[in-house]
Amino acid sequence: GQNIDQPTEMTATEGAIVQINCTYQTSGFNGLFWYQQHAGEAPTFLSYNVLDGLEEKGRFSSFLSRSKGYSYLLLKELQMKDSASYLCAAMDSNYQLIWGAGTKLIIKP
Amino acid sequence: EADIYQTPRYLVIGTGKKITLECSQTMGHDKMYWYQQDPGMELHLIHYSYGVNSTEKGDLSSESTVSRIRTEHFPLTLESARPSHTSQYLCASSDRGRDSSPLHFGNGTRLTVT
Prior knowledge:
The structure holds 2 protein chains of 2 kinds. Chain A has no helices and 11 strands. By secondary structure, chain A is an all-beta fold.
């Protein structure tokens, strides 16, 4: 079957760095997405990886290892507004998205 | 500013009623999707469309229907609402030009069936 695993909840301190991991199993692979979702709001796109390696976008970076079926989202210089759920989604061979349940990130002052 | 709009934002309705959730986008995207999301759970695909007059069923399609008569409009209809339909419904769109195009989501409709 196809599935995505990511931690349910993580806590970090304002100004620190946090890494949110995601492992995936899909029938074929056409890339991995990360979305941010604040409580009661719509998910918003953060990053897309299809090749191995690290993609950096300001304070956020995303890493992919296709051989390991593994990705992580790295958030630096955490701010209170980064408190949200982070959704990992892998695209299978039919270009359908398989979604994780999301990781709720709590930022403490 | 939102480029994809969902109405209503909140809806409370009685069991057995027929309801239509509206979704419109102004980006000219060919692909549109309906997802259901419960708190702390993954998104489940209900229906999707690759363009006008194209509709496909997702994992949770059996109790709902969609139509795609115009590119910008993709309404979802529940013929007979049940308490198990209580959830958040998210509409999304993406550019057909690239299969890896990210999804743009509407703000959702939170449905409660009493």
